[in-house]
Amino acid sequence: MCAILVGLFVSGEWRNLRREMREYELGNVSYIMNLVWTAVTWQVFSIGAVGLIFKVSSLFSNVISTLGLPIVPVLAVFIFHDKMSGVKVIAMLLAIWGFASYIYQHYLDDLELKDEMTRYDRKTEKPLNSHVNSGNFRPV
């Protein structure tokens, strides 16, 4: 946040804020509310993304962020009556494709894990997961 404010003042863009607010079609109050709530939602998003990184993984945090990408243009079309351009459609399709690839890879990894769990140990002629079924398995 501080870096953004420093950049705003160093670049001289702060001089244009009053004119930009006057030219905003929905009015001054709407302009300020837009800025404030944009800042609040970005802070909530950033804290949530960091929380996902610490609790789950950075990959999962990135997947959740990618899953949110197609939602924003669709909401913009319905709420702000924005036009759906070809670039937005391609971005949405790529985001959905990325999420589907992530889910499919987890599915393949799960199949491989199940396959490994059902293989037999050649020395004991027992399944490798026999300790789970015998009741001797205790999670750490």
UniProtKB/TrEMBL annotation:
GO terms for cellular component: membrane. The chain crosses the membrane at residues 31-54, 59-80, 86-104. It is found in: Membrane. GO terms for molecular function: purine nucleobase transmembrane transporter activity. The keyword tRNA processing does not apply. Keywords: Membrane, Transmembrane, Transmembrane helix, Transport. Its main location: membrane. It holds the Pfam family PUNUT. Belongs to the purine permeases (TC 2.A.7.14) family. This is Purine permease. It comes from Ilex paraguariensis.
